[in-house]
Each structure stands twice: as C-alpha cells, then as structure tokens.
C-alpha cells in the first residue's frame, strides 16, 4: 500500500510537470511566431531605449535532415524528382486541333533512379510556345493528384506548330526544404546598421551593428519599432560610449551573414537537390498542330481584344488563369481591353494627374519608364546621393502637361545592396495615411520580393494593413484609383538566390496577395506573374523592356480606359 501511494504521488508530480512543460513550450512557440508581427493595439516602448533582449529564436541554429522531423528521408539517400526521367504526354492526343481547344497534359514524376514517385508536391510549369510568331502562354501546374501524377489543362490560343514545354521549377524535396527554412528558421536576411557622428574635435566616429525586424537574442538593443504601425525593428546598441541610439544613420543587407546563416540551414546533400531548377522535362510531347492561318487569326484576336470590357477595378475578382497570352510579344489580356499607348497617348492620359508609386525596385522600374522614356516632356529629378537614387524619394514632372510621378521604396525589411540613409525608407501604411489625394490621383503598389525570407504571415499582415490604409484613403477620396501589381519571376545565378528568392516563395506571396484583395472590388490588379511566366525572354527580377511596355499598357489602361475621340 505505501508503494502504491508513493507511485500515485510520483505520477501526480510527473503529470503536473508535463502539463507545465506543455504550456511553457506552447508559449515559446507563440512568442516565436508573434515576434515578426505587430500586436493589436501595440504601443511601442520609448523609441531610443537600450535594454537587454530576452531569449529568442537563435539565427545560428544548425539544420540537417537528421534533426529535421518534417522529412522522412535520410540525407544520404535523397531520391529527388528528375527532369531527365520524368515525362509528360497529352491525354487522348489528336493529329490536329482548333484554336481555343483545351488539351490535358499528364505529367508523371520520376526520381533520379527512374522510379515513379508516389507522392506529390513537385512544382511544375507548362508553357505553350511558337518561336516563329513569338507566341506564348504559361500556367503553373496546380492539379496535383498526390501520387506523382499531375494534370494541366491548357488552351491552344493561336494557330501553327505549338511546342509544349513542361518545366520542373523545383522537385518536391526542394519545396520541403524551402518550407522548412522559411517556417522553422525564418529571416535569413541579416542587416547591418551604422551609427555615426562627428565628435567635437571633428573626428568621424562610427560603428556597424546587426539589425533585424525582431528582437535580437541576448544583446543590448536600440528599439526603432514604428510608433504608428507597431512594426518591429531593432539594432544592437552601440558599444562605443561616444555613440547613442540617436546616431543610427545608415543600414544595408549583411551579405556575408546572410549567406552564412542560409547555407548553414541545409545539408550538403540537400544542396544537390537545387541543381534541378527550372529545367525542362526531357520526355515531353511533340509539338501540336493547330489549324488556321496566323495572319487571319491575328486580325481576329485584335477584334477579340477590343470586344472585352474596359480595364476597371474589381476585374481581378473574376480573373481567368492564366490572364492572357503573348503574340508577337504583345500581351493580349483575357480580362479587359488593353490599349497600346504611344507617347502622345501617355502624355494625354496623364495630363493634370499625380501618380504615386510605392514598393520595391520592380515598381521603381515603372517610375523610371515614365522619367526616362518621355523626355523632354516628363523630366525626373536628379537624386542628391546614392541612397536617394536607390530608394527615393524620386519624382518626375511635366510643367507643360501638369504631370507629376513620385516613387518611394517600401519600409523595412527592404534589402538594399549597399548602405542607404534610414530616413529614405518609410512604411507604405504611413505614407498612404499622410498622402493628399483627389480624383485625379493614381496610386500603384507592389510589395513582395523583399519578403521571401520571412514567414508568410508577416507578408499577409503587411498587405492587410496596406489594404486598410488604402480603404482609409478612399474614404477621403473615393475617386482615387489604386492599383496593385503582383510580383514577377526572376533570375537565380547561384544556390543562395534560390534559397532567398525562390519562385516558389514568390508564388506563395502572389497567392497570398490575391487572397487579401479578393473582397476588394474597388481596387485594380496587374497580373505581372502571368505576364512574366509566359514571357519570351530570360527571367529577370527587372523584366525586359518589351515586358515592361506590356505592363505599362496594362497600368495606363486602368487610368485611361478609352482613347480620346477625334476632334
């Protein structure tokens, strides 16, 4: 009996201990997920307060498949999907097809040992292409049967010999690695902040420290959390007694630490998986024969384009996928009637208007198109330094036509490649709340590329906040046009760029943005994703000039739906 009582007592203590441990671990996980996001009703501490940080998620934690519980495969025997052995074929093929006929492409994934895969998760993309007419159409494959087989429904949009190109963007094993390093150990972007001041004796004193959009483990910190949005930003406090938090002047990405922490997150065996990246399936269907005369078809497709409704806000809610195709490298939208703008058209369209562009360098590219292509009628300002040249604020004006174009980079965690002044970086939410607009104002927003190394929840939170700020702005000025542009494809010169900016990451951000905007008929949307996966040029984070022209035509078609009638 005493032994039983002791045993019961022991079990009671053990249960209490396990319950306590469960709540402690749960709280820790909750704190880790919350550290990237502003809390509701957040009131930041005093802006320039140095303090000792509490224990947080370490950036130096090592990863390998051995301690990765999300993967069942050993790093020594990763049989990842192969583009050489995988195959694609047309279901129920025919000798010829009609324009606008839909065909089904079946993809069967096989691994590097030529064994059929029994699970899904691979990232495939299908493109239709005719080189002679520079016609193309592309779609990300989303019908995953979960057993190594994928189905893509594709529509034949033009006549001629049409090649069917199936690309393995990432094997499923690479996707799992990307998921892990974003969710389990996020934030591989490390920043360097610089404190500097000139002493009374005229000596320039400076110190470089680590900065992050979250609390940094076991370091005295300067808290630069934004007082209006609650978005966190911390820098290690200066150790030099002649410097204080008030002396923070510059910041940049720390490329060496970014690469160190990112490459430590995957094993050498996992690195091999990423050699299969954006490679075409070797065993692909033969080109299909689509009946028809191209020149006659081309006349009809221009008539089809003109028959569509004018480009207006809310059409993204009913957006077909994909949203269009190229012919002779001209984008034909299936969503709305795109105008083809001449220089005269652009100047007439923008007369007496102010255009405000916020976002990353892909939206800056559209600003530069206005500032550089339409000289001398529209002239851009001369940036006063490299910081302003990179991040703005930039503006271009036309006195003759009363046009003004403005650009500002989005807020932290923007990833500049060299030091820029911290005051050139401002949160879009605050900019929109402070912006004076009227019925002739136009706003373009594009945010995405710089969020690929962070949890998806962080990006979703920022986009919801931006949408809320847009809604507040439109209460002040209901006729102001607001256009969101999706992210686009990009190049990946080395493995690090895949791990930081994989198109799988970019696509998840793109889908998250569409989800945020799905109940916003008052907003317009430019589908840069569809336009760049289908383009006939090499992928680049800053697309080819031809692709930019198509994006500009889309943007301007929202501003000026119809060409002015001849006098």
UniProtKB/TrEMBL annotation:
It comes from Strongylocentrotus purpuratus (Purple sea urchin). InterPro entries: Ig-like_fold, Ig_E-set, NXPE4_C, NXPH/NXPE, SGNH_hydro_sf. Transmembrane segments: none annotated. This is NXPE C-terminal domain-containing protein. Belongs to the NXPE family. PANTHER family: NXPE FAMILY MEMBER, NXPE FAMILY MEMBER 3. Residues 331-560 form the NXPE C-terminal domain.
């Amino acid at each position: 009996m005493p032994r039983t009582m002791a045993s019961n007592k022991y079990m009671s203590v053990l249960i209490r201990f396990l319950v306590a441990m469960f709540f402690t671990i749960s709280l820790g996980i909750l704190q880790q997920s919350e550290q990237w996001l502003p809390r509701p009703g957040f009131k930041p501490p005093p802006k320039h307060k140095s303090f000792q940080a509490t224990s947080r998620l370490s950036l130096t934690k090592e990863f390998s498949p051995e301690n990765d519980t999300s993967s069942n495969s050993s790093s020594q025997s990763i049989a990842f999907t192969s583009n050489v052995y995988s195959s694609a074929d047309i279901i129920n093929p025919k000798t010829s097809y009609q324009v606008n006929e839909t065909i089904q492409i079946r993809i069967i994934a096989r691994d590097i040992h030529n064994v059929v895969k029994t699970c899904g998760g691979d990232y495939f993309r299908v493109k239709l292409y005719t080189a002679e007419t520079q016609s193309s159409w592309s779609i990300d494959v989303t019908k995953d049967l979960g057993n190594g087989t994928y189905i893509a429904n594709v529509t034949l949009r033009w006549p001629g010999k049409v090649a069917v190109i199936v690309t393995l963007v990432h094997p499923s094993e690479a996707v799992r690695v990307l998921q892990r390093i974003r969710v389990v150990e996020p934030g591989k972007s490390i920043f360097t902040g610089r404190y500097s001041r000139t002493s009374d004796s005229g000596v320039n004193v400076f110190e470089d420290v680590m900065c992050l959009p979250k609390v940094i483990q076991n370091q005295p910190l300067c808290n630069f959390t934004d007082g209006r949005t609650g978005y966190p930003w911390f820098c290690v406090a200066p150790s030099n007694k002649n410097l204080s938090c008030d002396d923070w002047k510059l910041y940049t990405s720390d490329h060496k630490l970014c690469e160190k922490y990112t490459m430590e997150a995957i094993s050498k065996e996992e690195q091999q998986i990423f050699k299969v990246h954006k490679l075409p399936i070797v065993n692909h269907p033969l080109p299909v024969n689509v009946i028809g005369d191209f020149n006659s078809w081309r006349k009809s497709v221009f008539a089809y384009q003109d028959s569509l409704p004018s480009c207006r806000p809310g059409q993204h809610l009913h957006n077909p996928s994909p949203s269009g195709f190229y012919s002779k490298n001209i984008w034909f939208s299936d969503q709305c009637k795109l105008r083809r703008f001449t220089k005269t058209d652009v100047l007439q369209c923008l007369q007496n208007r102010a255009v405000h562009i916020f976002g990353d360098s892909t939206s800056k590219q559209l600003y530069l198109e206005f500032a550089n292509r339409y000289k001398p009628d529209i002239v851009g300002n001369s940036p006063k330094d490299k910081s302003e040249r990179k991040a703005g604020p930039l503006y271009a004006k036309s006195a003759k036509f009363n046009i003004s174009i403005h650009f500002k980079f989005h807020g932290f965690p923007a990833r500049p490649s060299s030091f820029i002044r911290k005051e050139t970086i401002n949160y879009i939410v605050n900019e929109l709340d402070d912006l004076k607009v009227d019925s002739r104002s136009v706003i373009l927003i594009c945010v995405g590329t710089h969020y690929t190394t962070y949890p998806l929840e962080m990006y979703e939170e920022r986009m919801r906040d931006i949408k809320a700020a847009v809604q507040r702005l439109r209460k002040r000025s209901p006729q102001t046009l607001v256009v969101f542009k999706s992210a686009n494809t990009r190049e990946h010169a080395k493995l690090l760029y895949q791990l930081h900016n994989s198109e799988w990451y970019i696509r998840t951000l793109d889908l998250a943005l569409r989800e945020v905007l799905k109940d916003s008929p008052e907003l317009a949307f430019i589908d840069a994703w569809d336009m760049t996966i289908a383009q006939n040029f090499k992928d680049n984070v800053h697309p080819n000039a031809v692709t930019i022209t198509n994006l500009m035509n889309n943007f301007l078609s929202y501003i000026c739906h119809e060409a002015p009638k001849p006098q």
